[in-house]
Design brief:
This protein is of the alpha/beta class. Helices cover 45% and strands 16% of the residues. The longest helix is centred in the middle third of the chain and has 21 residues. Bound molecules: nicotinamide-adenine-dinucleotide and zinc ion.
């Protein structure tokens, strides 16, 4: 694709073919998140981490110190991709959703103090969504906020959590209860890191990809249906396309509604039920699987309330299952799930809000789903 540009001889701006090729590559490998003075660029490409130094500089980040927060396994596998940097201090945090916690945040505050990080320092999150949410939350609150960079290494983090500025830690009472909006200054999604991702982790990301397709993009939904093998085999062109398209969708929604006054709520499709399942299974059910079940439940509720054609609900369930994702709630008391859902921060005055598909590619936010219907769908194994 890029080689075609070498033949370009006519360029009205008077640039050399090399400059045109570089500009084209730049256009093909970046997505801009438009947020006024908080705008930033998401880079999506192979070989990006080796160029991290210049990417940081181009974004105006020349801090005196950099705290790189990472997952031990990620650091072991991919730490060597970063250029050596005497200004960098590495802070590994233990893996797992249970460690997206105030306790780990507190360890980081202390460790950063001891390492002498100050307001001119920057924070880089290098790992999956757990590392990104935790490091971002600590970056947002330490000394009232440090510059923050996301370098996501899971499919889920590259297509979703690294973009949009939501950062948080969990509390025993609710998922993501303690958090902030803290946009990154730059996102570096190096596709090379995905090669080592375990299959189960890869599926986690596919769940958020299906979410984006259902809320905004019927064409991508079709692509997912027709390219299942390429996707599962992590064909480089398929991965590049998917990460880019998903970042575009997320960026568009976030640019229109940074703080979730309206539109951004559609990104919670599958998440009201999903978060309840995560809490009730104490995170033994991972986020992607939990929202996969949440999306299937939402589709059934949409079908039962006459919003979604039964064939479309089936199509969504088939797509999720085709990726090896679950679509039936685990054996938990439906009343318990409902109780936790009412405590979710997406509920308003205890009134549940659900994002329901009205077609595959379009959703609406609904707050009048009868609880009896929800209990029935949650209790059914379909
Ligand atoms: N902030 C947001 O907008 C947002 C959006 C979606 C999800 N999330 C959050 O993201 C979290 C889930 O993130 P996740 O699915 O990335 O899980 P994760 O961060 O827990 O990572 C999962 C595991 O993958 C391993 N890993 C990561 N990258 C690897 C690589 N390249 N090669 C090999 N192993 C690798 C790690 O060791 C880790 O144990 C949840 O807490 C969820 O709430 C946040
Ligand atoms: Zn999610």
């Amino acid at each position: 694709l890029y080689d075609a540009t070498a033949d370009l001889t006519v360029d009205t701006t008077g640039r050399t073919p090399e400059e045109v090729a570089a500009a084209l590559r730049e256009a093909l490998t970046t997505v801009r998140v438009d947020l006024g003075e908080r705008s930033y660029t998401v880079h999506i490409d192979t070989g990006l981490l080796a160029r991290a130094g210049s990417l940081l500089e181009e974004s105006g980040l020349a801090p005196t110190r950099r705290a790189l927060v990472t997952n031990p396994r990620v650091w072991e596998l991919h730490g060597g991709r970063w250029p050596a940097d005497p200004r960098r201090v590495v802070f590994p945090v233990p893996a797992g959703e249970r460690n997206k916690s105030l306790r780990q945040a507190s360890h980081l505050y202390r460790a950063w103090m001891e390492a002498g990080l100050d307001r001119r320092s920057a924070v880089v999150a290098f790992g999956g969504g757990q590392v990104g949410d935790l490091a971002g939350f600590v970056a947002a609150t330490y000394m009232r906020g440090l510059d923050f960079v996301q370098a996501p290494t899971t499919l889920l983090a590259q297509v979703d959590s690294s973009v949009g500025g939501k950062v948080a830690v969990n509390h025993p009472a609710a998922k993501n209860l303690v958090g902030a909006f803290h946009q990154p200054r730059l996102v570096i999604a190096d596709l090379d890191t995905l090669a080592t991702l375990p299959a189960a982790e890869f599926r986690e990301g596919l769940a958020e990809i299906v979410k984006h397709a259902v809320i905004r993009d019927a064409r991508m939904l079709e692509y997912l249906e027709t390219h299942r093998t390429e996707i599962r085999e992590r064909n480089p062109a398929a991965l590049r396309h998917l990460v880019r398209r998903n970042v575009e969708i997320k960026a568009a929604v976030v640019s229109a509604d940074e703080r979730e006054a309206g539109l951004r709520a559609i990104l919670n499709f599958g998440h009201t039920v999903g978060h309840a399942l995560e809490i009730l299974t104490r995170h033994r059910l991972r986020h992607g699987r939990a929202i996969s079940i949440g999306m299937a439940v939402a589709a059934r509720v949409a079908e039962r309330t006459g919003r979604l054609a039964p064939a479309e609900a089936k199509r969504l369930v088939r797509l999720l299952r085709g990726f090896g994702l679950p679509t039936s709630p685990p054996a938990l008391a439906p009343e318990e799930m409902l109780r936790v859902m009412r405590a979710d921060k997406k509920a308003i005055a205890g009134r549940l809000r659900l994002v329901l598909p009205v077609a595959l590619g379009r959703v609406e936010v609904v707050d009048d789903v009868p609880e009896s219907l929800l209990l029935e769908v949650l209790g059914g194994s379909d």
